[in-house]
Amino acid sequence: MPSVLRGPQGIVVTAAVAVAGAIVAAAILFTSSKASDVNLTTASLVPADAGVYVALNTDLSSSQWVSTFKLVEKLGADDPEGELKDGAEESGFDWEDDVAPFLGGNAAVYIRGLDVDSISAQGAVILRAKDPGRVMEILEEQAGVVDEDEYSGVEYLLLGLDGYAARLGDHVVIAIDEASLEEVIDVHQGKAPALAGVEEFKKLRDELTGNFLGFVYVSTESLLGDFFLDDPVVRAALDQSGAAGMVFRPAAWVIGARKGGFEFQAASIGESGSISPMLRPRESRFAALVPGETAIFFSTAGIAQAWQAVVDEARDAIDDAIRQSGDYDSLDDALQDAGRELGLESIEELVALFEGETAIAASFPDGNSANAEVVLLAEVDEARARAVIEKVVASNATGPGETRQAGSVEMTVFDDVDGDPLAYAFKDGALILGTPAGVEAVLEMAPGQPSLAGLKRYQDSVEQMPSALGTYAFFNLGALLRLEEASGVPAVLDAAERALEGLIINAVDERGVVRLSGVLTIEE
After folding, report:
1. pLDDT tens-digit series, residues 290-326
2. Which of 104, 134, 178, 232 could form a disulfide with 128 if both were Cys (CB 3.0 to 4.6 A apart)?
3. HEC string of 28-91?
4. Pairing relationship of beta strands 430-434 and 261-268 according to DSSP bridges
5. Is the pLDDT of residue 412 over 90?
6. How far is the C-alpha of 448 from the C-alpha of 442, rounded, in Å?
């Protein structure tokens, strides 16, 4: 099998550059749009045991590409259409003759397996071409033809740089080696199963949005199993840690554009295992309790349950690792030592409090990043939590705490061992801990006062999220970009500052699919 570092890369790059040229010229079709799902026809030619499959939407009249360039324009590009036309010309592409023939809807690269010993792989570029005959001519012009041959009734070319190319109906295949080309032909003729028929591939494709710019599918076991995941030591470690369900199962990623912003999704049909309590679909209670000026908001749930599940499942392995480090004899010893520094018997006393939602909110009221107001909010059993927090404060405060009224509850303010002021309070089953001004702002939130949950930027981000919320982080980009504005925001950021709304990153286990999603919203 030839090395992937040899000539075939040249052929693959030639095809990839042609497709990239098409993307660069996308603005030529800037004014037309049709919102239809991407039909991954290339997956019907890829072997079922492919380890990596990367597909690109090459329908430049689709809503995805139209939205992309309109969003770029909102971010400050003066003339994206003109700039991209110029870029295509400068790259040496003639649109009608060199680019348009490649644009048939989708193009893909797949890798079937890796061999570390010989640094080699099997795989190919497959594209659905608008004019497959012209594509074959371009490949001949770019690389030259060394020889012609036939396999199973299909004629193919041996190109310069040792690449192999064949036309299969509306598709063109450019393979790394002869064996890979023959594999694709077998799949095309129904002699071998296709990736498109693999249940795990179909589930991930269907669970993720069908309308996207790019799609990536990875089967770690298919890609690496021969030299990594079959190793008994590696597999035993993964099994004992509870991570095998995630590592051994396929995953997929998509990136796309909508009218209101860009989105990213990653998904796996592996089991989330020990951390599943933190990935359950839910709605945040605390987003409605923090001020609307909140710039950063992180929310999760079930920390105590996830911690206990991890410890129960992998305690022996953790104890062995700690013992080998030489600092402690076991996990319990390490936790007890950490607890003593806080005035507790074990740090697990603190961890065990966080059974419900836990959130962290940060704001910058004066526009200075050095003066952040940070608050931790946690749904807790108040009696149990109060006893733990009071022990921590008694052990770490530099003096007696001061109590004052904030809203309708009592707030305790104290200085920590570094002399920094902190405060805590309990309200409606929630622990609120942080900077005094931050805690006070939460406690004094009046009915009707703008909260983060009522902020349009936050609402837009949540609404565009393609899945339910689990563990997530929200960033108010407008507020963050304005930090230090007194010292002058660089001119290049002015348009982006006006356009960028929010960024939300979310992880959730929904319908048996573990998802990581991201949405970047852009103002109309």
Report:
1. 999 999 999 999 999 999 988 888 888 888 888 887 7
2. 104
3. HHCCCCECCCCCCHHHHCCECCCCEEEEEECCCCEHHHHHHHHHHHHCCCCCHHHHHHHHHHHC
4. unpaired
5. yes
6. 13
**To which H or E segment does residue 405 belong?**
strand 402-406
Predicted pLDDT of residue 322: 86
Tokens of 104: 């048939």
* 255 phi and psi angles, rounded to 5 deg: -130, 140
The tokens of 156 are what?
Answer: 């193919």
Which residue's entry shows tokens 């089991």?
271
Q: What is the pLDDT of residue 316?
A: 86
Task: Report the residue count for the chain.
Answer: 524
At 115 the pLDDT is 52
Where along the chain do its domains lie?
Answer: 8-217, 305-356+371-443
Q: Which residue bears the tokens 């570092």? A: 5
pLDDT in tens, 207-223: 887 778 999 998 866 55
Write out the E strands in 409-523: 409-415, 421-427, 430-434, 471-476, 500-510, 513-522
Helix (H, G, I), strand (E, B) or coil at 181: helix
Provide the 3-class DSSP secondary structure of residue 365: coil
Q: Is 103 exposed, middle or buried (0-12, 13-18, 19+ CB in 10 A)?
A: buried
- What pTM was computed for the model? 0.74
